[in-house]
Amino acid sequence: MFENLQNKFHKALQFLKGNDTITEINIASSMKEIGRALIDADVNYKIAKEFIQKVKKKSLGEKVLTSLSPKELIIKIVYDELVKLMGGKSVDINLSKETSIIVICGLQGSGKTSFSSKLAFFLKKKNKRPLLVAADIHRPAAIDQLKFLAGEVNIPVFSLKKSKNIIEIIDKSIIVASQTNRNVIIIDTAGRLAIDKVMMEEIEIINLHSNPDEILFVVDAMTGQDAVNTTKSFSEILNFDGIVMTKLDGNSRGGSAITMSSIVGKPIKFISNGEKIEDIEIFHPDRIANRILGMGDIVSLVEKVQEKFDEKKTKKIYQKISKNRFNFNDLLEQIQQIKKIGNIKNIVSMIPGLNRYFSFFHNGDKDSFKRIESIIYSMTPNERENPKLFTDLKRRKRISKGSGVTLNHIDIFFKKFYDINKIMKKINDNSGQKIIKDFMYKMMNKK
Question: Which listed site, 10, 169, 328, 354, has its alpha carbon 20 to 30 Å from 234?
Fold first, then answer.
């Protein structure tokens, strides 16, 4: 997510490296590159131009403090302007009533049904009791899709497959929610290929009948500026409360997410950045700005870790390390835990500078974990339990052939494994915070 934009911003800000003062000349090159980065990310030309002008004006008017370099000052100004452009602050969904109703709408193919199930799962983790309502009476497969996705996480779905009466579906779903003690009703509505009269009439009927606390418009980020235009057109007809941006994990250039709020005048409330049901985030403009500028998003990472990490297993691993018994099965288990947190690309973007150093095998390759797994899976059970066996060159050659990884990279893998073992042996069970701090320091100060 925003990986391409992040790399280009990093390149643009390198023009200021080593300068003691901000001048018209050194800032011009940097701003030119930032402008190109924004336009390449599918940001509207006028908005990109205004953004550059604001940053340039503020930069030249600022005095560089002795504690800051020109580059650090520009980063701060760019950060502030990015946050403003993306809406300034996160806006929560309204769940104030005893039973809250959320209507999900959008065009066909935008990811409405998938998002509805993701939102239900997200709220379930927040100790809410959601009921999904299949209100797409035009696409029978939508009901089956919703039931399949929700069934994986044990969330109930209300549907009337034979009914084409949207009012009947809404009314009965509210009754069922009351009878089954459900306190959030999420209504997945029908999509259309375009914003048309039929679509708007149906949404208005649902709106009037359900009296929702929240209406969310789902938009596909991969459609770029079309996503912005579609959302703006929809907002002129229906006064929805917030925007959901989906498919930010794909080939989306990110420009629509950056400019959506300022153009439409509505906040982005959620982003969806993967296919898994847990791949959903609250949209925090400040955190996204940090990611774009390569400063990471440690707060979001910690939140994900707290949700997914198995504390008992982690303590067990620390105990094995302290007794010099950490082996490749343990490493494999740790990788599985990290993968549970979410999309690896997203995790990498949350750690400051890591995207530039996550190159275990190839520069910029985010499939390193897969290669590590393939190396371990190519070992015998005995070899996984006894890392010292790999002083034998024949074994390493066999693993190289079995995993499809070069012998040179196999040697790098073992060296890193032994290095990690040495470092980890020096810490005790309660030193987790120190590890993170040391890791962060090395990443941010690596040359």
Answer: 169
Render pLDDT for 261-300 as a digit per residue (tens, 0 to 9).
889 999 999 998 888 898 898 999 988 888 787 765 445 5
Q: What pTM was estimated for this model as a whole?
A: 0.69
Distance CA 85, CA 285 (A): 9
| Phi then psi dihedrals of residue 264, to 5 deg | -85, -30
d(CA 190, CA 143): 10
Tell me which residue of 435, 403, 197 sits closest to 317, measured CA to CA. 435
Q: Where in the chain is the domain with CATH 1.20.120.140?
A: 3-85
8 versus 67: the higher-pLDDT residue is 8
Could you give the count of Cα atoms lying within 13 Å of 83 in the half-sphere of its Cβ? 13
**What number of other Cβ atoms are within 10 A of residue 143's Cβ?**
19
- At the topology level, CATH places domain 3-85 in Four Helix Bundle (Hemerythrin (Met), subunit A) (1.20.120)
* Amino acid letter, residue 443: M
- Distance in Å from the first CA to the final CA of the chain: 24
Residue indicated by tokens 């009901």: 143
CB contact at 8 A, 209 and 218:
no
Which of 144 and 68 is assigned the larger pLDDT?
144
Task: Tell me the DSSP string of 262-313.
Answer: HHHSS-EEEEE-SSSTT-EEE--HHHHHHHHTT---HHHHHHHHHHH--HHH
Question: What ranges make up the beta strands (E) of 52-127?
Answer: 100-106
Contacts of 94 (CB under 8 A, 6+ apart): 100, 213, 214, 241
